[in-house]
Amino acid sequence: MEEFVKLDVGGYLYTTPRSTVTRYPESMLGKMFSGRIPPAIDADGRYLINGDGSVFCHVLNYLRRSKLDLPGDFQDWDLLATEADYYRIEDLKKAVKTAKEEMVTKEFVEVTSYHNRDGQINGYRGSTETLHQLKSFYNLGSIEVSKNSGGNYFEFFERTYPQRLEIFRTLSKLGFELNTVRSIDSKYCWTFSRKVSGRIPPVRDTDGKYVIDGDGSVFRHVLNYLRRSKLDLPRNFQDWDLLATEADYYQIEDLKKAVETAKEERVTDWGTEGIKEFVELTAHQDSAGYISGYRGSQIHCTN
C-alpha cells in the first residue's frame, strides 16, 4: 500500500505519496525522505520544510508528472527558479528556464465576468492594442471604460460590451488560445495567450504612451547612448550600479560594457587609491554684487 507523507511548506499544507517526493533521489527532498538529511517534524507528524508554500504546488506537480504546467498569467519565475535550486531538482531548473523563455514571446489577455447590483460586468486585462482590435470587430467606436489599478484593466457593462462568447470567438480569430479557467468568489476568469513572433508585446496607456517598468531618472543616459552610441555622463555621476542594472534589463550589451569601462576609468584615474574627489565652482551676479560659489570638501575650502 502506498505510503503518504504530510508536509508543511512555509505554512502551506500538502499530502503526497512518499514515492513522489523521492522521485529525484539526489534532490534535497529525495535525501530528506530517504533519511540522509535529518527532517524536522511537528507534533502532528508533518514534515517542516523552509520553502515558499505558494509555489511549492508547482514543484510538487512537476515531481508527480515530470512536466511543468503553469497558469497562463504566471509571474513568479525567479521565485520558482530559486525554489527549484533550493530543492536541488536540476530538471525542474531547466524546465523553468525553458518555460520562461517561451513565455516572454506570448501576449496574454484576461477576460473576467461577475455580477453586482448594476448588473452584469465584463472585465478585460491586456494590451490596449488588442482592446482596440476587439472594438473594431464590433464597430463600437468610442467606449466608455474605467481603468482601475493593477495594470491595463478595463470594465464594461453588458449593455455596452459584446457577449463573452462573441469575445472568445474574436480572440480565437486574433490567434489567441484559451489557457486557464478559474472561479474566485463568484468572479469567473478566462486567460488567453498568443505567440508574438519572438517579440515582447508592448504595453500602452490610454493616451497611447508606451509604459516601461524602468528607472526614469537614468533612462536619459540609456536614451543618449542609443542616440550617439557613446556614453557621456556628468562628472559627479554616482548611480553606476543602477545604470548597469538598467542596461542589463534593456539587454543592451554594448551599453553594459560601456558602463563597466567608464566606471573603471572614473575611479582609477587618479592613482592606486582609485577614488576621485569632485569640486564645483560657480559664479553669478545679483543685487548684492558678484557672487562666487564653491561645492566640495571643507579641507580644500579652508586651504
Automatic annotation (TrEMBL):
Domain BTB: 3-104, 143-267
Any single Pfam family the record assigns to this protein: BTB_2
Gene Ontology terms: biological process: protein homooligomerization
InterPro entries in the record: BTB/POZ_dom, SKP1/BTB/POZ_sf, T1-type_BTB
Protein name (record): BTB/POZ domain-containing adapter for CUL3-mediated RhoA degradation protein 3-like
Organism, scientific name: Acanthaster planci (Crown-of-thorns starfish)
Gene that encodes the chain: LOC110981395
